[in-house]
Each structure stands twice: as C-alpha cells, then as structure tokens.
Amino acid sequence: MSGTSKSPWIIHYDGSSCNGCDIEVLACLTPMYDVERFGVINTGNPKHADVFLITGAVNERNIGVVKQIYSQMLEPKVVVACGACACSGGIFHDCYNVIGGVDKAIPVDVYVPGCAVRPEALIDAVVAGLGALEEKRAALELASSYEAKELAKAAEQERLAEAASQPLLEEPAKTEEQTDIDINADEEPGE
Amino acid sequence: MSERTVIPFGPQHPVLPEPIHLDLVMEDERVVQAIPQLGFIHRGLERLVKTRDYMHFVYVTERICGICSFGHSYGYSQTIERLMGIEVPMRAEYLRVIWFELSRIHSHLLWMGLAADSFGYENLFYQCWRLRERVLDIFEKTTGGRVILSACNVGGVNYDIDNSELAGISQIIQKLKRDAKPLIKALVKDRSIKDRLVGSGYLSQEDAVKLSIVGPFARASGVEEDIRMFGVGGYGELAEFKPQTSTQGDNYARVAVRCNELLQSCDIICEMIDKIPDGPICEKPKGNPPEAQGIGRVEQPRGEVVYYVKGNGTRFLERFRIRTPTSQNVAGMVQLLQGCELSEVPLNILTIDPCISCTER
C-alpha cells in the first residue's frame, strides 16, 4: 500500500444533485462518521485531490465544469459517482436538461447506489476506489520504475547501435556518390 | 480611479457546497459589482408533472432539495389537498409539523456549522454537525431515511409514530435544546465572532421589503413575516407563535435570528407532542385533481415557498410551479456584496443561507 492510499484527498463537486447526497458526503467528514481518522481529507483544489466524489447527473451547463475538474486532477485519479442520479440520472433520467449519469462525461471507477446515498456506502465506495487507485498507481509506477527505465535505456541503446551500424555502411557510399556527382556537375560546366 | 479586475468565484469553491458562479468586479480589495450566474443544477423537474401522476409527484417534490426535502412534500401535498378539498386527519397534521420542525432544526444546525467554518471556527462546525446527527437519528428511527423521508403524502402521512416513541423524541429534543445552548452562546456571545459579524453585510428594512426578501434574512432586517403565524394546518393548534425578528440587519442579526428559531422549533415540537390526538393518519384521496388552480405557501427553513398547481381533470397535472426563497434572496445577496471586501464575500454569501437546488430545480 502506498502513501496515497493511506491518506487519500478527496474533492467534491455537486453536479445537478438535490443536495441530499452532498450533505451525506459532508456528514462523512464530521464527527459521527469522521473519515479523517482514516486520513481522508476534503480539499477544494483539484490538483491536490486523488479521489473525485461527484453527486448528481450531468446537464448541459455543468458537463464542461465536470470535465475541467477531472482534467485538472493529476494521475493516478479515481472517480466515485455518489447516488442514483450520478449513476444513471435516477428519478430525473427523463428530464429535458439531464444528459444522464456522470459516465456520460468522464470515466467512472466506482458507482454508489442510494437516494440519498448513505454515509456507510460512501465510505465503502472510497475504500473500493482506493483499490482502483492502487492498481492505477502500480501501472504508472511500472512505466516509470528503475527497472523499466533501465530496460528502456538498454533497448534504446541497442536500437541506436543497430541504427548506427547500418547507415555507416550506406551513408559514406551515398556521400561519395553525391560528391562524385557534385564534382562532376561542377567540373562539367568548367570543361 | 484604480483599475478594475474581474474575479470568477465558483462554481466549484471550498466554501460553497453547491455550485453558483459569481463574477466579482473588483477595485483593489473592494467589490464594485457582483454578477451571479445560475443554471448549473437546472434539471427541469417542473415538467415531470406531464409524466408522473399527482400522487407519484410527491416523490419528485421531495427531491427538489435534499435539505428542505420534507418541507417540499408538505407544501405540495397541502396545495393538492386544498385543490381537491381533502380533509386531512388531525394526527397527520401534528405529525407533519413535528417532522417539519425537525427538518428546520437540522437545516439550521447545518447552516450554523457551515457559517462557523466560513469565519474560521472549524471546531464549532464539527460540534454543530454532531448535534445535527441526533435529528437524523430520529428521522431514521421514524421513517427509515436520513435525508429523503418519504413520510408525507397527499391526504396525510405514510408512517405513524407510537405515543411512547413520541415521548422519547420529546426527551431527545429537550436534551438537544440544552446541548445547543453552549453552541449558540459561542455564536452569539463570543467576542471574536462578534467582531467579524457585527456591522458587516447590512441590509435595511426598506431594502428588504423593496427586494421582497423572505425568511430569516428578512426577519433579521426587521420584516415581521413568517407563514407559520397564519396558523395553516397543524400550526393553528399552537398556543402562540411569534416570528423571531431583529432590527440590526447585519450578519450578526441573521445568525442570532436562526439561533432563536432553532430554540423555538424545539419548543414547538415538545408542545405538539404533548397535545397530539389519536386517530387515523391518512385520508386516501378519491378521483383526480379538478380543472382548477391551487396555491399554497409554506415557511421553509430558508423562507416562504409558494406552490402553484393547475389541474385538468386527469391524473396528470397541467402545470406545477414553485417560487423558492433563494430566488428572492439572491437579489439581496447581490446588494450585500456590493461594496464589501473580498475577504467578506464567503460570509455574506453564506448568511443568506442559499439553496441553489431549490432555486434552479
């Protein structure tokens, strides 16, 4: 388990939710459920956050905001769709201004059902999200780890050596031919 | 004249639980103009009356706003009952008032916590929210839900509360009232809180009337109006009801008015539990809403809400419309923000207790 999973920072955005899920997200942070004892901290800055809790469906007006917050967050990141509206549009699925669940805008890792979502379910979802976060981190780390870098370096050197050995035979020949032509071309008008 | 800058505020901002966007036109540290932009939570649920019949629509009205959830189902049911001429059993009216006042307590405690957080009292924020959980426990015990209760229905209520359980609720509320007093003392008496609140965000009584401000925001400016004092439904059974007002009109007055209302709600609940009669809890409505228009008003935690319904003789309503308190109070908020300093902006937004979900629906 890496440090991030021991203290995930969350960011919360209210899509077009009715506040019901939002006050339950806030209730998780207050003394009754107190997720801060697990190191979960609420932040307002997308650059600091690892987990994106989003409540409510997306509509024409806020889809840009949701995408923007998601793109500002740094990798690895996890999206948790909190409540029935965020999962599928819920009771408002056939409203004229509702596009649908959050997955219409950004990729979602964990879906939490409930109207309104219960704090216990929310804590469970964040824990499930940490599993996804850990997998993403491992994939990222593999791509940037020392062994991977060494392997990549060795492969690059091999490729360079191969590339260097082949043109060395061809290039002088080309240049000779070219210079020959050039010399001939220069000489011809002179003669 | 110094140069003007525009600072975008929201829709995603740490102090705001809900998205609202403000363009603050600044001259150095002073706000010259605040231009609100709404529409981030608009779903278009008023149109759902075309596809949900008038009984099922109660569940949609509950989801207009999660904080004032019970109030919206109460107001809608009352309007439909008036339109169809349904006589609601007295026990149901009493139970409605009890749940409605409980949701006022939870809403005010929630707001007090957020306000405390906005002026830098994080511990007070946590204490207010801890106390609020007791109200949510009562909701969970009596209806099964913490936020969306599904308790109110056209013609009465869906759940009954045993008299023994009601006595228990009365005890919990009396204890809650005792435990709320130290928090209220901190909010109203603490010197450094007073320094931050007194005199900031002033709205005169004249302006409050001119801009049709409603709810605690108006009462803090000396406008004595509260729909509960007309004694509609269960409120007619109260021995006396007096709106909580203040004449100062600043942020401090708004905090004080809400603190007093919290204590008043505790008293109302205890009085209703003492007087509650036995009897049925629901009168099943017969037939469809007639081809007529109906109007209803309810005093929600944030102020007066007006419901308008129009029936057409079928089980689907022709039109449903709500006027929510925040749509009135945003005009006052813009007035408060003009001329204040940037550091006061979060507090001035919070003390009107905006509920954007209700406003945009």
Describe the structure.
- The complex is a heterodimer of chains A (191) and B (361).
- Chain A has 191 residues and is an alpha/beta fold.
- Helices cover 52% and strands 14% of the residues of chain A.
- Chain A folds into two domains: 3-144, Rossmann fold (3-Layer(aba) Sandwich); 146-191.
- Chain A is built from six helices and seven strands.
- Chain A has a five-stranded parallel sheet with strand order 2-1-3-5-7. A two-stranded antiparallel ribbon of chain A has the order 4-6.
- The radius of gyration of chain A is 28 Å and the shape is elongated.
- Chain B has 361 residues and is an alpha+beta fold.
- Chain B has one domain (43-325): Orthogonal Bundle (Cytochrome-c3 Hydrogenase, chain B), CATH 1.10.645.10.
- Chain B is built from twelve helices and eight strands.
- In chain B, the strands form three sheets. Chain B has a three-stranded antiparallel sheet with strand order 1-2-3. A three-stranded antiparallel sheet of chain B has the order 6-7-8. In chain B, strands 4-5 form a two-stranded antiparallel ribbon.
- In chain B, a hairpin with a 2-residue loop joins strand 6 (293-300) and strand 7.
- The interface between A and B is large, with 38 and 40 residues.
Tell me the layout of helices and strands.
The complex is a heterodimer of chains A (191) and B (361).
Chain A (H helix, E strand, L loop, with lengths): L2 H4 L2 E6 L5 H10 L11 E2 L8 E5 L2 E2 L3 H10 L5 E5 L1 H5 L9 E3 L9 E3 L6 H26 L1 H45 L1
Parallel strand pairs in A: 1-2, 1-3, 3-5, 5-7
Antiparallel strand pairs in A: 4-6
Helix pairs in contact in A: 2-5
Chain B lengths: L3 E6 L11 E7 L2 E8 L19 H6 L6 H16 L5 H29 L3 H22 L8 E2 L2 E2 L5 H27 L1 H7 L7 H6 L4 H6 L30 H25 L17 E8 L2 E9 L5 E7 L1 H13 L7 H6 L5 H5 L1
